[in-house]
User: Fold this.
Amino acid sequence: MARKTGSHGDITGPKVHAAALRLIARHGFAAVSMRQIAHEVGVQAGALYRYTPDKQTLLFDLMRGHMDALLAARAAAAGGVAVFDTPLIRLDEFVRFHIRFHLERPDAVFVSYMELRNLTPENFAALEALRRDYEDQLEVILLSGAAAGEFGLTDTKITTLAIIAMLTGLTTWYREDGRLPLTQIERIYTGLVRGAVGVS
Assistant:
């Protein structure tokens, strides 16, 4: 049987990951088979196992890749924020960063949040550690604002989780051709987050 164009030696891990991400975001992890992923890429199903041992590992790699990219981008963005900036300035910057990063990756965001239940306990624990690293960066800002008397908070951990959930939820409804431009939406969300931390 002739080899398909783009198969075996020509196929790359990123192509497999991209196809898997699209299909899982569209249909859900449980409904997607390795055969479907192979068909999407244009290869025989057996070729996928050159790049991943099984579907669970593929899912984990997709989710870990998203978190690694998020943490790397956050480190780069935070490096541009002056250490002497006020907690409020740092909070506003975090809001804008989170919105921009996640809106560019709606499929990765959907899979990373909705498919946690399909990870093995070991993989779930590894992902949760990465998520806590990111959440802790926001909580540090909230703690510093509370300590400085700028923010009025009763529980920084719950507020952190609530803010991240609110910001991430933007990916479920935002459209580039929507009623408001992204810059205005960012201003509205910045105001909502300020209200959540007791800043008028």
Remarks:
- The first helix runs from residue 13 to 27.
- The CA atoms of residues 84 and 90 lie 10 Å apart.
- The radius of gyration is 20 Å.
